[in-house]
Amino acid sequence: MAAHALSSASEFVERCHSVSDTNIVIADFRSLIAGYGFSASVCGAWDGFGQQRVNRFFFSDWPESWLKLYAEKDFFSADPFVEEARRAMTPFLWSEVEFERPLTPRGKEIYAIGRDYGWREVVGIPIHGPAGYQGMVSLASMKDITLSAIDRGILDMTSRVIHERCRKEIGFGGFD
Predict the structure, then answer these.
(1) Environment class of 41 (CB within 10 Å of its CB; exposed 0-12, middle 13-18, buried 19+)
(2) What SS3 class is residue 47?
(3) What does DSSP say about strands 92-93 and 54-60: parallel, antiparallel, or unpaired?
(4) Which pLDDT tens digit goes with each residue over 15-54?
(5) Which of 139, 175, 168, 129 is nearest to 22 (CA)?
(6) Helix (H, G, I), strand (E, B) or coil at 63
(7) Rounded distance between C-alpha atoms, residue 23 and residue 29, angstroms
(8) What is the DSSP string of 100-156?
(9) 40-47, strands of its sheet edge to edge
(10) Contact call for residues 127 and 165 (beta carbons, < 8 A)
């Protein structure tokens, strides 16, 4: 299994560097993560603080109903998962943040609403770059999953590769 997963990840990395259409490699990425049980993903970055923050989302296939709820309740400004991405250097799980970090009442509310919605696990791959650049790739599942150390490493590598591919694409993605 591990050898096949590494081979699939290697093929994905090669395609990211050889296929000219970014949307095709995003589809490849979604196919790759589906093999780990993830049904939704988002890739983006932000720069600045507070009202000066600029967000750039390269792609998202989160359910529209979740995105609407997330925006209406202004979860981004208090999401413990996003806060963890700001301080973490390696992949982390939603369940780890929930149980290993003290959550604010607002953070607990966000987790409760997420669980009620159906999310069971989310992996966050934090991205840090020069001049305060921050980003994240999030992979979400509505079923319980278990990831080995190799799985985490593969998801880390492939998420960084797709993020960088999207980031380099001039004008790619949407700002909000």
Answers:
(1) buried
(2) strand
(3) unpaired
(4) 999 999 999 999 999 999 999 999 999 999 877 666 666 7
(5) 168
(6) coil
(7) 10
(8) HSPPPHHHHHHHHHHHHHT--EEEEEEEE-GGG-EEEEEEEESS-----HHHHHHHH
(9) 92-93, 121-128, 134-141, 40-47, 54-60, 174-175
(10) no
| Antiparallel, parallel or unpaired: β 121-128 and 92-93 | antiparallel
Q: What's the whole-model pTM score?
A: 0.89
What is d(CA 140, CA 118) in angstroms, rounded to the nearest whole number? 10
User: What are the pLDDT digits (tens) for 87-108?
Assistant: 899 999 999 988 888 899 999 9
Alpha carbon of 16 to those of 56, 121, 153: distances in Å? 20, 26, 17
Q: Are strands 134-141 and 121-128 parallel, antiparallel or unpaired?
A: antiparallel
Measure the CA–CA gap between 58 and 137, rounded to whole angstroms: 10
The type of residue at 107 is G
Residues 55 and 101: their CA atoms lie apart, in Å, by: 25
Q: Is 93 within 8 Å of 122 (Cβ atoms)? A: yes
Given the structure tokens 């694409």, which residue do they identify?
169
